[in-house]
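Dear colleague,

Thank you for sharing your sequence with our group. We've completed the structure prediction you requested, and as agreed, I am returning the results in plain text so they can be pasted directly into your records. Please verify that the sequence below matches your submission; if there's any discrepancy, let me know and we will rerun it promptly.
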Amino acid sequence: MKIMRHSSILVLLVLGICSIEAADPMADFCDKDTKTSKSSQVSTNIDALLAQLVSKAPSTGYSATSYGKGQAKLYGLAQCRGDVVGSKDCSSCIQDAAKEIRQRCPDEAGAMIWYDFCFLKYSSKSFIGEVDTSYGIIFYNVQNVTDPEKFVKELGALVDKIKAQAVVPKNLGFGKGKAKLSPLSTLYAFGQCTRDLAKADCSQCLAIAVGNYETICGNRRGCRVLYGSCYVRYELYPIFYPVGANSTMNLVADETIMTLLNP
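Please find the predicted structure tokens below.
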């Protein structure tokens, strides 16, 4: 039985929307408990591991591998979003992630980085096949919907469909959908698990992520929840690829409030 750790959730309240460059990640996490020297074997192995992920992941949109021996051994995973697999943006995203994570976490043997189109993670501890909700990040729009009752009902139904899609093997952990709220308003949502998770674990991770919609996001017009094994998102504007690539898909705060929640 796998144990899921809920040690902390970082909440970012998004107060504004604007576009950003594709090379900018949504978020990153550097595990300060895994500090290492830049000249150590671990650091050398991180570079080699990332090179493997950059080489292997774009062909299928996913790669999970390890590199090194003994205490210097590292485990890594890179995955593109389900609707981006097979596009040049998948390859570009993995390359950006590998480069940026080394700049942001130069001295850690454990790190994660999230982009709109991909996710990359490495650690000195074996994590393949394990649900990781030990660290989470939540972005949400401070504006509320105009019809909360209908919105909550439609979002709940849509989320159920997405979770059901994500656990179907052929969908590779990804589910997406949309629902008409009014003649002028459409709700878009998707969810994705890392492909190393078993069906039951994927379902469990998505359930934990979606649970934040009610407890933290409330009736907000948009919300996304990022974990180390899955992430979910909904918005009132198109977010699916390739439409999202040319829209205000990326959120950046004009002013950001960060709060660390301890259970």
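Summary note from our side: Residues 136-261 form a domain with the Killer Toxin P4; Chain A fold (CATH 3.30.430.20).

Kind regards,
the structure core
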